[in-house]
Amino acid sequence: MKKSVEKTIITLSFMAIVLGGGYWSNAYRFTDELIASVMGEVQTERNIKKGTHTDYDENAIENTELRAKDMDGNLIPTYAETSADFLEHLPFKRRMVDINGVLAKSLNMRDLYRKNGGNVLKNGYVVGIYPYTSTDYEIQQITEFRSYLDKKGIQLLYVNEPTKYINDQVIIEDLGRVSYINDNTDRFLERLKDNGISYIDLRDDIVEKEMDSFDLFYRTDHHWTAYAGKMAAESIADALNKNFGYNIDLSIYDDDKFVYKEFKNAWLGEQGKKFGESFVGLDDFELILPEYDTLFHITKGEDVIEGCFADVLVDQECYLPENNEDVYSASSWHYSYMGQTGINGTKIENRLNVEGKRVLVLGDSYEQVTIPYLSLGISEIQCLVLRNYAGSVREYIENHEIDTVVIAYASFMIGAHDNETSANYAMFDFN
Predict the structure, then answer these.
(1) pLDDT tens-digit profile of 320-379?
(2) For residue 412, which phi and psi values (nearest 5 degrees)?
(3) How do 258-267 and 199-201 pair as beta strands?
(4) What is the rounded CA–CA span in Å between residue 148 and residue 431?
(5) Rounded CA separation 423/285 (Å)
(6) pTM, whole model, 2 decimals?
(7) Domain extents for the chain?
(8) How far is Cα of residue 378 from the mean position of the Cα atoms in its chain?
(9) How many C-beta neighbours within 10 Å does residue 225 have?
(10) Which one, of 87, 93, 79, lies nearest residue 33 by Cα?
C-alpha cells in the first residue's frame, strides 16, 4: 500500500513539473502547431497516395509538391520538426530526464526504452535484444567479395566483435525475453567456415581468459572499452601472424608496456542519456597509452597530422572538466580515440614499422579504439565504415595498394540488412 502511494506521488509530481514547466517556458504555444503537424502528416499521406507514390516513403515525404500546405500556401512542418522545437523550449529539460529516470527506476521499468535505447539488466548494464535473422544475405555478399579479393591476390580476415553478453541465456534469465544475437553469430560463423573464409571470434578470447564480457564494455554505452580494443588488436595481430604471413611483435601489447589513467564516474554513454544519469549512473573510463616510443603519420583527405600515439590517436581535450560540465551534452568519451580524424577514410602510417604491410579495415564504431592499437604493429592501416561511405569498396581497392582486408564487425551488424531504416543497412554491401 505504502509503495503504491509513493508511486502515485512520484507520478503526479512529475506531471506537475512537466505541465508547470511547459507553461512557464511558453512551450505550450506549440500545441496548435503540433496538432497542425499531425493533420499535415495525414494530408501529406493522402497526397502521396493520390500522386505517383504508392508508399509513404522518405522520398515522397521530402517532395515539396506533395507536402501539405496551410491556408497561406506555406509548407506545414513535419511532426518531427515541430516536436523537436517543442522539446527544445522546455526548461530544465535535462533535469526532467533525470526525474523520469528516478521514476522509471523506482518502478523497475528496466525495459522502458527497449525499442530505442535498450534494456537495463540487474547488473546495471544497458543492453540490446535482437531478433532471429537469416544469414543468407551476409554469406552471399562476403563470399562474392572473397572471390573478388582472391583474383586481386588480397587476403581476407573476418573478425567477430562481441556484444555485452556472449550467452543469450543471460537475457532470458534476467528479463524473461529472448535474444538471438549470439545464435545468429554462431550460425553465420559456421557458414563462413563452410565457405573456407578465415575468421576469428573474439568471444573465444573472453572464454579462454575466463573474463566477464560485461567488464569489457561500458554500462551506459554500447561500445567496448579501450582495454577491449587493445585486446582485440592483439588477437587480430596474432591471426595475421599465424595465417597471413605477418611478423608483428606481439610483446608490444603486453599490459606492462602501457600507462593507465582511470577516470571514475566520468561520462554518460549514448544509451545512458536516454535512461538518465539518475537511473544508470555515470561510467568510468580508462585511457591506455603505450609507454614506448611511437610515431604516426595520419592522412584524411587533405588533412595531415604527425606525432606520437597520445597526441594524434587520442583527443584528450575530451576529458577536460570544462568540457564535461553537462554530461548530457558532453562529447562521447569513446570517440576520444581517433577523435581528431575519425576512422572513415583515414590512413594511418606507422613510421617506426618497416614491414611494409598495408591493411584495409572495413569496420564499425568499435574500431575507434581498436585501430589505434592495431596500428602499433602494422605499417599502414586504412579504414572505411560502409554505412557512411558513399563510394564503391571495390573502386577504393582498385585505387589503393592493399595486402589484406579485415572486416571487423560487432555481432549486431548481422541481420541489419533486414531493415532499410537501420543505420547499419549497408554494412555488408561490398560492391
Answers:
(1) 999 999 999 999 999 999 988 889 999 999 999 989 999 999 999 999 999 999 999 999
(2) -75, 0
(3) unpaired
(4) 10
(5) 26
(6) 0.81
(7) 2-127, 136-418
(8) 25
(9) 20
(10) 79
